[in-house]
Design goal:
This protein has 302 residues and is an alpha/beta fold. Helices cover 44% and strands 18% of the residues. The protein is globular and about 60 Å long. The two termini are 21 Å apart.
Length: 302
């Protein structure tokens, strides 16, 4: 599908999900390396790197830099604390040695660390979770100023609603530490408000906000029967995340229905600051849905 996405010329990025024990799947670094070897132009990245805090810091930095070399500089990192809840979430924390309560703090610190490892040699770093002395990662990513985004949400993935208060401190940290933001389950109005806060934080750090980037994750299921599309998406997401979402919750972050209805949902984000939409096909018929996406939905957006 990554090869077909590049060949269609309708996409600029291929994203892969990532987690350890909560959502078993192909390892993102191995999978994206395979995509990189079969493509030439399209960008690759995780949506998002759920194991960013669960992997060893040096292993992560070394392996991801190697992936970027294989991709000839086409990768970008999207760090996140992971998503989930319940026994699987707690089990992952227990067996990786990183508690759920520490994930977010560890993520911010690790972003600072890997940025140093990917741009400097003989790094010394002392934080709350890392203590490194005179360490160099070789090879480094192709770009000397490697892009690091973070993925955070207005509400927790496992909740039954996508409503929530704006996490002002999080927006401030994104602007300070990162080069981009990924999120899901927000209205165009809320996205615009949140993006403005992030850019304001970046400006305070004297960053060039023109280059600041973002992506919104949207599930999609194309079916002329709108209710059947929503049911299919809900069933897929329940298996994908091991979380049963309510119908309203599924509706909040899924473009569903006919091609026209799906295109209309996506077009609502045109003027609110969204730069990229990361589409996840929420259906077991991945190939059939992909064909409908490139032949029926996306041409309507042109």
């Amino acid at each position: 599908m990554g090869v077909r996405a590049e060949e269609s010329r309708m996409f600029n990025t291929v994203w892969a999900g990532d987690a350890f024990l909560t959502n078993p799947r192909l390892d993102a670094i191995a999978l994206l390396s395979a995509v990189a070897a079969k493509t030439t132009d399209i960008r690759i990245g995780p949506a998002c790197m759920g194991s960013f805090t669960q992997r060893g810091a040096l292993d992560l930095a070394y392996q991801w830099a190697s992936l970027d070399q294989i991709a000839n500089g086409r990768s970008l990192m999207v760090a996140c604390a992971g998503g989930g809840g319940g026994p699987a979430w707690e089990n992952e924390g227990r067996n990786t040695g990183v508690s759920s309560s520490d994930r977010r703090k560890l993520m911010w610190e690790r972003i600072e660390l890997v940025r140093k490892l990917w741009s400097q040699d003989n790094v010394n770093f002392l934080g709350s979770f890392h203590d490194l002395k005179d360490v160099s990662i070789l090879p480094k990513p192709v770009k000397s100023s490697y892009p690091i985004w973070t993925a955070t949400n207005i509400t927790r993935l496992a909740t039954g609603t996508s409503a929530g208060s704006l996490p002002e401190k999080t927006f401030m940290r994104i602007g300070e530490l990162c080069d981009g933001w990924m999120t899901h389950s927000v209205t165009p109005e809320v996205f615009s408000l949140a993006w403005g806060r992030i850019l304001n934080s970046a400006e305070k750090m004297n960053k060039n906000t023109k280059d600041f980037d973002n992506a919104l994750v949207v599930n999609i299921c194309v079916n002329n029967d709108r209710e059947a599309a929503l049911d299919e998406a809900g069933s897929f997401l329940a298996e994908y995340y091991n979380i049963t979402f309510s119908k309203d919750r599924t509706k909040d972050w899924t473009a569903h229905g006919s091609a026209v209805e799906c295109a209309k949902t996506l077009a609502e984000y045109n003027s609110c600051g969204v730069k990229h939409i990361a589409l996840r096909i929420a259906s077991r018929d991945q190939n059939g849905q992909f064909e409908r996406l490139i032949n029926d939905v996306l041409p309507l957006l042109h």
